[in-house]
């Protein structure tokens, strides 16, 4: 199936590469990310249109999951105070998702790469959640002998 959807092409361009500043191009997603609270959510909502179109055209579920993760990474990374603003300009989830969509429709996606990405992100998420919990319990155990005197 040949890919050509000017609306999605335009959306990805506006969201990630709208105008150039010297050697850099920035889009609406990065600018929206500068608005605390609202910006990253609005950028994520606009990004869903590419995913919805991919679902309509029967793109494999693993590719859809990877696209959702790209938007999630963009939204979560962009919500980090100060650093997230730079992240929003650098991580181009819409262009990435449009490329995934094109490749899937052309039959050029290798599912093993998508599974690898999904498993890596999930392992990273588990580590981010588990490490603070393990460290907390280690510190509690370490401090327990000193706490009995209270």
Question: Would you mind describing this structure in some detail?
Answer:
There is one protein chain. With 150 residues, the chain is mostly helical. It has a domain at 6-109. It contains 7 helices and 2 strands, in the order αββαααααα. It has helices spanning 6-17, 28-32, 38-56, 61-78, 83-90, 93-106, 111-147, and strands at 19-21, 24-26. A two-stranded antiparallel ribbon has the order 1-2. The longest helix is centred in the last third of the chain and has 37 residues, at 111-147. It starts with 5 loop residues before the first helix and ends with a helix. The model has no long low-confidence stretch (mean pLDDT 85).
The class by helix and strand makeup works out as mainly alpha
Main β sheet profile: 2 strands, antiparallel
Mean pLDDT: 85
Shape type? flat
Strand content range: under 5%
């Amino acid at each position: 199936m040949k890919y050509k959807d000017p609306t999605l092409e335009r959306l990805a361009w506006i969201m990630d590469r709208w105008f150039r500043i010297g050697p850099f191009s920035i889009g609406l997603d990065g600018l929206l990310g500068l608005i605390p609270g609202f910006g990253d959510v609005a950028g994520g909502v606009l990004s869903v249109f590419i995913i919805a179109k991919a679902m309509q055209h029967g793109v494999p579920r693993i590719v859809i999951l990877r696209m959702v993760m790209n938007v999630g990474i963009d939204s979560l990374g962009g919500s980090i105070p100060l650093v997230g603003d730079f992240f929003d300009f650098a991580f181009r989830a819409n262009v990435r998702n449009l490329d995934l969509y094109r490749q899937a429709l052309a039959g050029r996606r290798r599912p093993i790469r998508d599974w690898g990405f999904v498993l890596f992100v999930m392992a990273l998420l588990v580590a981010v959640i588990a490490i603070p919990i393990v460290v907390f319990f280690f510190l509690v155990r370490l401090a327990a002998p000193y706490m009995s005197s209270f």
